[in-house]
């Protein structure tokens, strides 16, 4: 076992920091196992002037020219009315091209402001060609009835039960305008996108009519006919289960008894299985960005040239690691889409609601400062055995006008294994721990993202266990040793007031999926997990302990536009010990932080004895209890929809200030965790008492 050094041609801040891993040692886990034909999604922002200048230079290799032309084509989508052209776009590269990584993308980087790779899709989900976005929007027929009280409610999630009675009107017709299954078999363009399958209102209504053998709708047959829970086809089928995260969230956001259903038009986007199963969130950006644009475009189509309809979108997903300063590529994409919609002509606004995250007790965040007496800090990173997924740690440096060697990082594997050479700030190389020809660990430095001024070290580990099969890319894929990995951060030029922030990337198993990931975490003797009575410690962390409960807020929820919701317990009004919050670093150079934490807290648990809140299962009549800030967010999304359905009755437009004004301030709840206070939205389902 030895450490080797490999030169990286480019470490620019516009490049996906995970690219060196996913195209190198992490390749077996970056592609879909057992899929012969697959293409990788790329979310990018193109500098059109630089692209045209590069093509006009005359000295461009054919391969580079073809790729730049493909990115230009993907960027040339038509706009709706007064809407400005989108800043971010998605294209798909053949898997073989993705594996070439920097060799292919490197020459194109000067024309890309940002680029981020996502998980691949099988070719059956995609149109032919390298580009997934159409040059012109596909003509769409307005189906839903628009009234003065119409609100478009979008839900981006997994396992959306669109045939459920809670999403029908009093006449038995669906209230769902469309559902975009992003990894569904491609049957033609979906709005401006050329991947996945769109299930329209007409298809849902037809299936509901055809699947009534004895009166009630046979929802199993509906989902089988529409190929979202068809056991004659391969792949994961979320809707075949009795409960899904998406069913619960969708019900809390926009579910009603048919007799009470308002004039809300529902639009769903079911994210690819590969994105949901990988809870790290590093694969979320391209698909979530497209999902938000799809909901926006559907609302504009329904408006039919008239004033903009109000739109509320719930995205109950999140990351742990990231810059936490509003500069993550998905945060910028969300802010851009929302801002552009709200500035385009007359009408009501778009709002996006996100959870604050459930990682407060996860020991996934560490902060420290250096002193002359302590020029080096050492972190213990506990990695579990039997972890079938990669693990990551991000080390974010304080802002700097120019990159200099202020800090260096050393990684020590468990046991009597060699420590890595130091990797310094600005080093354009990868340190890799090699054993029997396989790379077990990779350490890289990533230049500051545009607008951030903060560089980042990324430590990536192979899974600690594998289930080898026919889909393995190598006969025996590498396995990293479990145990405590030591991360040493050595000061070379930081002042005692400058803070280094570290995050462990999320790596658990999502609800309803087979166990794969096991969450790694930091360890320290000073960290108290439980108090003297054996209860989970939820107070302030000790000053000398580097591991922090604060600062673990959802890493895609620190932008300007989204309403961010924490979770509280209804019986005593206390914040849940898992509900994550700030403070956040904010955008460098700003006089005030962008946000210090969530905006408000909403109910995510009824009581200690009755955990969770009730929401729909995947079939009509079923109820399940789920907890977490993921179920607090849609309750506020529902409140905002009610707010926008009757704008004349309210002074505001459902934005962050309006939502915060509805909260009841509580002095005992810190704003870094509860924002402006608690909003106790009435339960969607009340518990029934037996007489």
Give a brief description.
The protein contains 15 helices and 26 strands.
Descriptive account of the structure:
This protein has 691 residues and is of the alpha/beta class. The chain folds into 3 domains: 1-9 and 366-540, Jelly Rolls, CATH 2.60.120; 31-125, no CATH class; 151-358 and 602-679, Rossmann fold (3-Layer(aba) Sandwich). Helix content is 19%, strand content 23%. It has 15 helices and 26 strands. The strands form 5 sheets. The chain has a 9-stranded mixed beta sheet with strand order 7-6-8-5-9-10-22-23-26, sandwiched between helices. Strands 1-16-17-18-13-20-11 form a 7-stranded antiparallel beta sheet, with no helix packed on it. A hairpin with a 6-residue loop joins strand 24 (613-616) and strand 25 (623-626). Helix 3 (48-56) packs antiparallel against helix 4. It is globular. The N and C termini lie far apart (69 Å). The model is unreliable at 132-136 and 587-593 (pLDDT under 50). InterPro entries: Peptidase_S8/S53_dom_sf, Peptidase_S8_Asp-AS. This is S8 family serine peptidase. Keywords: Hydrolase. Residues 649-691 are annotated as: Disordered.
CATH class of the largest domain: Alpha Beta
CATH architecture of the largest domain: 3-Layer(aba) Sandwich
Structural domains: how many: 3
How many H/I helices?
15
Residue-averaged pLDDT, rounded? 88
Terminal CA distance? 69 Å
Label the structural class.
alpha/beta
CA radius of gyration: 25 Å
Low-confidence stretches: 132-136, 587-593
CA-based shape: globular
> Helicity, in percent?
10-25%
> What would the CATH topology of the largest domain be?
Rossmann fold
Number of strands: 26
* Name given to the CATH homologous superfamily of the largest domain: Peptidase S8/S53 domain
Summarize the biggest pleated sheet: 9 strands, mixed
Report the β-strand fraction as a percent range.
Answer: 15-25%
What is the topology, as strand order, of the major beta sheet? 7-6-8-5-9-10-22-23-26
């Amino acid at each position: 076992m030895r450490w080797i050094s490999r030169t990286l041609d480019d470490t620019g801040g516009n490049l996906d920091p995970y690219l060196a891993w996913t195209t190198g040692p992490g390749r077996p886990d970056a592609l879909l196992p057992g899929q012969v034909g697959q293409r990788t999604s790329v979310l990018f922002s193109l500098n059109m002037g630089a692209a045209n200048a590069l093509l006009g230079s005359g000295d461009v290799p054919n391969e580079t020219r073809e790729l730049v032309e493909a990115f230009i084509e993907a960027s040339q989508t038509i706009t709706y009315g007064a809407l400005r052209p989108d800043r971010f776009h998605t294209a798909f590269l053949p898997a073989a091209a993705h594996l070439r990584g920097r060799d292919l993308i490197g020459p194109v980087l000067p024309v890309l402001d940002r680029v981020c790779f996502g998980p691949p899709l099988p070719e059956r989900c995609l149109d032919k060609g390298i580009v997934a976005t159409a040059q012109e929007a596909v003509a769409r027929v307005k189906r839903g009835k628009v009234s003065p009280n119409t609100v478009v409610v979008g839900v981006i999630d997994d396992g959306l039960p669109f045939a459920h009675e809670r999403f029908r009107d009093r006449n038995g017709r669906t209230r769902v305008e469309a559902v975009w299954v992003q990894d569904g078999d491609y049957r033609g363009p979906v709005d401006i996108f050329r991947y996945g399958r769109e299930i329209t209102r007409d298809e849902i209504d037809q299936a509901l009519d055809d699947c009534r053998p004895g009166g009630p709708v046979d929802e199993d047959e509906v989902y089988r006919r529409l190929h979202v829970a068809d056991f004659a086809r391969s792949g994961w089928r979320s809707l075949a289960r009795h409960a899904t995260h998406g069913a619960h969230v969708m019900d809390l956001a926009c579910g009603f008894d048919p007799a009470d259903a308002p004039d809300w038009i529902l639009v769903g986007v079911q994210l690819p299985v590969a994105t949901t199963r990988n809870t790290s969130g590093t694969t979320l950006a391209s698909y979530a960005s497209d999902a938000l644009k799809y909901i926006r475009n559907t609302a504009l189509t329904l408006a039919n040239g008239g004033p903009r309809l109000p739109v509320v979108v719930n995205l109950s997903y999140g990351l742990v690691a990231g810059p936490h300063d509003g500069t993550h590529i998905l945060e910028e994409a969300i802010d851009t889409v929302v801002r552009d919609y709200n500035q385009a002509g007359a009408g009501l606004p778009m709002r996006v609601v996100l959870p604050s995250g459930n990682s407060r007790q996860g020991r996934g965040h560490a902060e420290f400062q250096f002193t002359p007496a302590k020029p080096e800090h050492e972190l213990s990173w506990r990695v579990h055995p039997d972890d079938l997924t990669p693990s990551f740690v991000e080390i974010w440096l304080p802002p700097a006008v120019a990159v200099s060697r202020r800090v260096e990082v050393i990684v020590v594997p468990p046991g009597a294994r060699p420590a890595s050479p130091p990797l310094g700030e600005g080093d354009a190389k990868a340190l890799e721990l090699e054993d029997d020809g396989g790379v077990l660990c990779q350490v890289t430095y990533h230049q500051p993202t545009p607008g951030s001024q903060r560089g980042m070290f990324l430590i990536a580990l192979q899974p600690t266990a594998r289930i080898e099969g026919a889909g393995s890319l190598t006969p025996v894929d590498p396995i990293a040793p479990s145990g405590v990995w030591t991360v040493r951060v050595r000061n070379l030029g930081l002042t005692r007031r400058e803070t280094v922030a570290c995050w462990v990337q999320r790596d658990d198993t999502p609800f309803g999926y087979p166990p794969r990931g096991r969450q790694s975490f930091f360890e320290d003797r000073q960290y108290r997990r439980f108090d003297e009575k054996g209860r989970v410690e939820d107070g302030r962390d000790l000053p000398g302990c580097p591991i922090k409960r604060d600062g673990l807020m959802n890493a895609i929820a620190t932008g300007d536009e989204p309403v961010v919701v924490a979770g509280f317990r209804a019986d005593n009004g206390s914040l849940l010990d898992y509900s994550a919050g700030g403070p956040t670093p904010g955008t460098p150079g700003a006089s005030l932080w962008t946000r210090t934490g969530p905006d408000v807290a909403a109910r995510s648990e009824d009581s200690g004895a009755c955990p969770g809140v009730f929401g729909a299962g995947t079939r009509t009549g079923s109820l399940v209890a789920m907890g977490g800030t993921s179920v607090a967010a849609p309750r506020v999304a529902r409140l905002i929809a009610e707010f926008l359905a009757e704008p004349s009755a309210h002074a505001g437009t459902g934005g962050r200030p309006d939502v915060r004004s509805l909260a009841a301030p509580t002095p005992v709840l810190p704003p870094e965790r509860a924002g402006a206070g608690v909003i106790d939205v009435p339960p969607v389902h009340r518990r029934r008492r037996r007489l």
